[in-house]
Fold:
Amino acid sequence: MTIILSSPTLAALKPKLVLSAGPHAMAEAGAFDCGRDRIYAILKFPEPVPGRHVLEAAWYAPDGKVRERTRVPLVLGSSGDSAYAWLRFHFNDDVVAALSGESGDRRFDGRWRVDVFWDKKKIAEKHFLVECG
Structure:
C-alpha cells in the first residue's frame, strides 16, 4: 500500500486504507472471490474529519484499465472518521467481454489496484487479488 498525502491537514491525519468484503469490517483482505457482490475500500482517519467531502475510487483491472469509478459525496458530523467506496462486479452486462471471447468471470481474475482520492487529492493506492474460481 502507498499513502500519498499532499495536503498538510491530510498528512497530519494519516488515514488508513483497508480493503474488505464488508463496509464496516476493518479486517484486511488481500484476495477476493469475484462471487462476492462488492469489495469495499474503507478509509479510516485517526480523528474525525467533519464537513463536506468527496471520496472517489478508481478501480484498475489486471489489464491496467479503469474498470469502474466510484464517487461518494459525504457530509460528516463531528464524529465522522471513516468513509467507504466499493467495487461491484458486473457479470451479465459486459457486451465487450462477450464480443471479445473472454470466458465468463475469468476476465476479473488477477492483480487489481484501487486509487483513492479525498476531495480530489490522491491519498492512497492498494493492490489486491481477485479470483473467480
Remarks:
- Strands lie at 2-3, 16-20, 31-33, 38-44, 51-60, 66-76, 82-88, 110-118, 121-131.
